[in-house]
Write a structure and sequence with these properties.
There is one protein chain. The protein has two domains: 5-237, Rossmann fold; 256-425, Four-carbon acid sugar kinase, nucleotide binding domain (Molybdenum Cofactor Biosythetic Enzyme, Chain A, 3-Layer(aba) Sandwich), CATH 3.40.980.20. The radius of gyration is 22 Å and the shape is globular. The chain has helices at residues 12-24, 59-75, 97-108, 156-161, 173-176, 180-192, 205-215, 225-237, 266-276, 286-289, 294-308, 321-331, 333-353, 364-374, 417-425, and strands spanning 5-9, 29-33, 47-51, 80-84, 113-116, 124-127, 130-133, 136-137, 168-171, 197-200, 220-223, 256-261, 281-283, 313-316, 356-362, 378-386, 389-394, 403-408. By secondary structure, the protein is α/β, with parallel strands linked by helices. The chain is 40% helix and 20% strand. The structure holds adenosine-5'-diphosphate (ADP). Adenosine-5'-diphosphate binds next to helix 12, helix 13 and helix 14.
Amino acid sequence: MAIVLGAIADDFTGATDLANNLVRSGMRCVQVIGVPHAALALDDVDAVVVALKSRSCAVECAVEDSLAALDWLQAQGARQIFFKYCSTFDSTDAGNIGPVTEALMTRLGATQTVMVPAFPVNGRTVYQGHLFVGDRLLNESGMQHHPLNPMTDADLVRVLSRQVARPVGLASHSVLARGGEATRRHLEALHEQGVGHVVCDTLDDRDLAAIAAAVVDLPLVTGGSGLGQALPVEYRRCGWLAEVAEPGRLAPSAGTALVLSGSCSRATLAQVARFLEHHPGMALDPLALAEGEDHLQDALTFARERLADGGPVLVYASADPERVKAAQATLGAERAGQLVEDALGRLARTLVEEGVGRLVVAGGETSGAVVSALGVRTLRIGEQIDPGVPWTQAPLAGREAPLSLALKSGNFGGPDFFTRAFEVLT
Ligand code: ADP
């Protein structure tokens, strides 16, 4: 059966965030890392999210990768395409949100789409086309200092107008408040005036519901994961979704339980400390890793012994800012990070081969390193552990049972995340 929704996400954690919301709204969802080289078995899947790394790369690369993802998703029969970007509209005047959107529209033959970055429950709202983070305008939210894409203008109509060729318009809250049908008529009126991109106000979930009702027939929608939470209601109304009791149901997990942490974010440091109160853990030191194999072999021996005792076990490079600075002063920031990522990747590969079946990874870059060391390309999305972080399952070559994998970026998750993750799974 063909999939209903095909999504193209401009980064990895954003892809997971969207996939997690789709599952929570009743869709069975798979996330793929990069554009697959072949068709996948998608018999019991409603949505596929393709995770790209196109947020901050050159425009031409972002467009090329996004079009390749589109071609693949269309080959899987996707009824609607969703271009997912950050709820803070991370982009520059050069792109990549505008140029990617227009390239997707052209390939799809679409003459209009919507821009819906807001996620009200997370404090991202849009009013009169202006994006707010909590009670601050985007350009006063801290995002004006972002190292790659400083957001110095909160007026999304103006921001987007600098990135695209087609005219940009607005669907304001006063229209959305009149419901889905009124919103649809407004989009049609704008379409007659030649407006290709409609920035949508969003104050709350009712606005998201009105937008979803108005756009369900568009070939392309764009926005944040909030829109992903609202669309499945409309797909169900259209009769496109089978009723599934547990869309996040995964195969029973097997094997021992391991946590690998390369994140030094504040939330992760608290999670590491909390875990160590009741479970064994070993710290990795980048300076010792730089000296040769011994430190990594010690970590392997430690993990093997404790896993044999029943686990869960933690191996972590997570350290407070002073320790990180000291390592970086000696090794350079890039080499220190690379040593840690390589070590955690090798630990993951070896220990999974030896029987780890439930793996929690902390850190965005760290997750990328572990996933590529394991050769993971496809993640089936399961139940949420904490907001934005679901359990996933990955088939691995040469292994009968899939690997259960939770990938947590820095500041996600409550203090007891590592222990609760394994409780959620059982
Ligand atoms: P987060 O999601 O919290 O930003 P990331 O994994 O994306 O975490 O980034 C953390 C980076 O810091 C990684 O490159 C990791 O290898 C590096 N790192 C981890 N521990 C240390 C350490 N003790 N010293 C120096 N760098 C470290």
